[in-house]
Amino acid sequence: MTPPCIVRSQLPKLGSMHNRDIVVIGGSSGAAAPLRHILGHLRPDLPAAIFVVLHVPAQGTGLLATVASAASPLPVRQAENGMAIEPGHIYLAPPDHHLLLLPGRMMLGRGPRENMARPAIDPLFRSAALHYGPRTIGVILSGLLSDGADGLSAIKRCGGVALVQEPADATADEMPRHAIEATTVDLCVPAAKLGDVLSDLVRERAGTAMPIPPDIQLEVDIAAGERIDSRRLVDIAEPAALTCPSCGGVLSKLKEAHPLRFRCQVGHAFNADVLAQQQESRVDEALRVALRIIEERAELVERMAADGRRSGRRALAESYDVRAREYREYADLIRQVVLETLDKSRAAPAGQDAGRKDG
């Protein structure tokens, strides 16, 4: 395993050791159009490799063709485990794998999902920061929720450059906005200009190499599929009174994390907004289960009251009638809460369900 604190100059180099030759791009809902703008404006002699993570379904097949048609001057390939990194190439994360960068090559990780997604943006960005530091340019495009915000922060912590699509220019502005809140962004640019900006930035000299924060190394290891337990997790997180929505385990709050983030002992990771959305979904499900049980209880007690009347036990029947009315009142109250929750869900932007595969 790489030591917790190393200097970039000790790592193998890709292409020129002085220019910013690693570009990582992440997006979700609404990101396909700006990605086409970027790739369509890149020059054929691009002295950098580009890596792309878009949240796609596990069986998604159309992304490769879409990107290849937009980037006709440059070869586009789906990343493979162990594949060598070549300047002037565009690599796409395959479905259901985290795309990670190593010195001179790629790795596909089957570590736990982050923010309900695999591939997720944060693991790619962290691995680029870990191994390429100031040679890295991170770009966040349109998308819902906040995947990519912590990864872009990691790139900045390791001396790289942070670019964000102008939120007002994005179909879904949450990812760009959360990225801007998480770190000091170098440039905030409309999609139509991002390709030209990147073409210039990759020809500039990289900044000064910086030590790697230990938490970045550990989180890259987790995405690669390495075992995590409480003894390792305690180095970067502290237990919280919250439950992992994926496995039911105890969540721990990442220390000094911004945006607020959590991991469980299995390794599932959640930004606070994604976790809140998952909890809201579970609350809604619990309310519906409670509604069903109470209505069934009311139905049963009403039948018991009717049976009591037929048997001439009027006092018992009246007692059951009172209980049935109480149950119906409880059911009406819960039904009203469920309807209000549904109204709020409909008022939210389309596609905001964190359980989806595309964002």
Walkthrough of the structure:
With 359 residues, this protein is α/β, with parallel strands linked by helices. It contains ten helices and 13 strands. It has helices at 32-40, 63-70, 121-132, 149-157, 174-182, 191-201, 214-224, 230-233, 272-310, 314-347, and strands at 22-27, 49-54, 76-78, 90-92, 98-102, 105-109, 136-140, 161-165, 187-189, 237-243, 250-254, 261-264, 269-271. The strands form three sheets. It has a seven-stranded parallel beta sheet, sandwiched between helices. Strand 1 (22-27), helix 1 and strand 2 (49-54) form a beta-alpha-beta unit. The longest helix has 39 residues, at 272-310. It is elongated, with a radius of gyration of 25 Å. The model is unreliable at 1-16 and 349-359 (pLDDT under 50).
Main attributes of the structure:
359 residues; alpha/beta; seven-stranded parallel sheet; four-stranded antiparallel sheet; 10 helices; 13 strands; 41% helix; disordered C terminus
SSE order and pairing:
Blueprint: E1 22-27, H1 32-40, E2 49-54, H2 63-70, E3 76-78, E4 90-92, E5 98-102, E6 105-109, H3 121-132, E7 136-140, H4 149-157, E8 161-165, H5 174-182, E9 187-189, H6 191-201, H7 214-224, H8 230-233, E10 237-243, E11 250-254, E12 261-264, E13 269-271, H9 272-310, H10 314-347
Parallel strand pairs: 1-2, 1-7, 2-4, 3-4, 7-8, 8-9
Antiparallel strand pairs: 5-6, 10-11, 11-12, 12-13
